[in-house]
Design brief:
The chain is built from 4 helices and no strands. With 136 residues, it is mostly helical. It has a domain of 61 residues. The radius of gyration is 38 Å and the shape is elongated.
């Protein structure tokens, strides 16, 4: 990662956290009914008009900055090569050719014969083993 990418990424994460905080501080639309009867709104930090205007503008500015950092990150990382699969990044193995027959055709290749297993006559298909005496 280069320096510009790191700085943009840090700014992007901090702006995202700021947007979350600003949205959580804002009042819902149903909260304005009690404020109309003088529910202590004149004693707030943001004045008699309340914090709605300040927080709304701050959220809009943070959203614009988030959009700008998103575009900046896309621009900075435009030439980064992405590996989509482990199979794409694995080294390619060389193919192994089968031995050719008399006429050069690989289809004439025969597998070696497997040894025959001795089977017990009482249980056909089961390999013969030493007979075990029953435990007493």
């Amino acid at each position: 990662m280069n320096t510009a990418n790191t700085l943009l990424l840090v700014a992007h994460v901090l702006i995202a956290a700021a947007i979350i905080g600003l949205v959580m501080l804002q009042k819902g639309k149903g909260a304005d009914a009690g404020a109309g009867f003088g529910a202590g709104a004149s004693g707030t930090v943001f004045g008699a008009r309340g914090s709605g205007n300040f927080l709304s503008r701050s959220t809009a500015i943070a959203a614009a900055a988030f959009f700008a950092t998103s575009l900046g990150l896309a621009y900075v990382n435009r030439d980064v090569e992405v590996v989509n699969s482990l199979l794409d990044s694995a080294p390619q193995e060389e193919s192994v050719a089968l031995p050719a027959g008399d006429d050069g055709d690989a289809g004439d290749f025969e597998l070696p014969a497997l040894p025959e297993l001795e089977t017990d006559a009482a249980a056909p298909g089961v390999p013969a083993t030493e007979q075990q005496e029953p435990a007493q």
